[in-house]
Amino acid sequence: MDPALARLGEFGLIGLIRQRIQERTSGTIRGIGDDAAVLAADPGGDLLVTTDMLLEGIHFQRGWDCLRELGRKAMAVNVSDIAAMGGCPLYALLGLAMPAVGITLAEVEALLLGLEEEAATHGITLVGGDTCVSASGLVISVTLLGRSPRGGAVLRSGAKPGDWLWVTGGLGGAAAGLLALEQGFRPGQVWPATLSRPDWLGGEEEAAIQEALAAHLTPVPRLAAGRALQGIATAMIDVSDGVASDAGHLCTESRVAARIQASQIPIHRGAAVMARLLGREALDLALRGGEDYELLFAADSDPVPVLAEAAPTLPVTWVGEIIPGTPAPTLVHADGREEHLAGGFDHFRKAPPRSARTA
Q1: Cα 120 from chain centre
Q2: According to the CATH classification, is domain 3-149 in 3.30.1330.10?
Q3: How far apart are CA 288 and CA 201, in angstroms?
């Protein structure tokens, strides 16, 4: 273990975390320092609770040297869950398991810096958690508490036939960013020496790859959009495992079918570049790559005017419709051909780990 980290010890690390965090939530009665946090209950709203883990070798590689970005992402993916419910994040708990060897105090500091940066962006207070040594790799688990108006949380189960299906932002960028990392690209760095550069790839395409790296390493939760969609979206989910998978979850919970138009899928420009560079299909990255953390939602009225006011720089695209039938999505190609839409990331399928896979 890094001597500086060993000298600090577990309780010194907890003290360090306590020094680094700031209180941003007015309902914090007691944060880090006791057996449990003491938080003011909100009698006028519903409590939202979500948790996500990021595991070394599955979700990231420490060799990418992006610990600050990893801290931001650990918080952001949880904020995205709150956004998908139309809620507001409040408090976070951090579970941190560190390998006995190979990690330094400087890396832990970078991780905490990124975590606090993302928390500050959304007004979140870290109020507790746990630390321990891991027998394998680095494990980061964030539990996030938020609120929504009483009875106002947007669920996955409210879509009905006749609703339109929409998605925010572009898709496939995070999967393209993962491919770029595996090829040796790094944020802000020059073209990898081990990778030949084709003649067609110019400055705009290289900028698109950098955007894809950012989409993977530091996703932007669509919090303002999620809140604006309360009362408009009949069902909503964040795109964490890919539209192919997450549209299926929405259909299952709502007990409806969906027809998704392939020509309408908004493909991230970084996905288009990396697909061409590596001989992949950009549409496949957009549908099955995952980790875009955009909002996929059903609505029975036009959401564009509301989103234009709440999130004016965020594109929103109509991608299909909700129909009666067996709860599953169908992909409709430009030539009219239809296919059952399946795929996306699943931790328990026999597949390469996310950080090593190619989509």
Answers
A1: 17
A2: yes
A3: 25
> Which residues are registered as beta bridge partners of 173?
none
- The pLDDT of residue 353 is 42
pLDDT-based confidence at 358, cuts 50/70/90? very low
Tell me the per-residue pLDDT of 323-340, one tens digit each, with 9 for 90 and over: 999 999 999 999 999 999
Cα–Cα distance list, 230 to 139, 150, 154, 212, 310 (Å): 34, 12, 6, 29, 12
Which of 314, 301, 299, 297 has its CA nearest to residue 247? 297
pLDDT at 274 over 90: yes
List the chain domain ranges: 3-149, 164-340
Q: How far is residue 252's CA from residue 46's CA, in Å, rounded to a whole number? A: 24
Q: Are 315 and 244 in contact (CB under 8 A)?
A: no
pTM: 0.89
Residues in the chain: 359
CATH fold of 164-340: Phosphoribosyl-aminoimidazole Synthetase; Chain A, domain 2 (3.90.650)
- CA–CA distance, 233 with 301 (Å, rounded to integer): 8
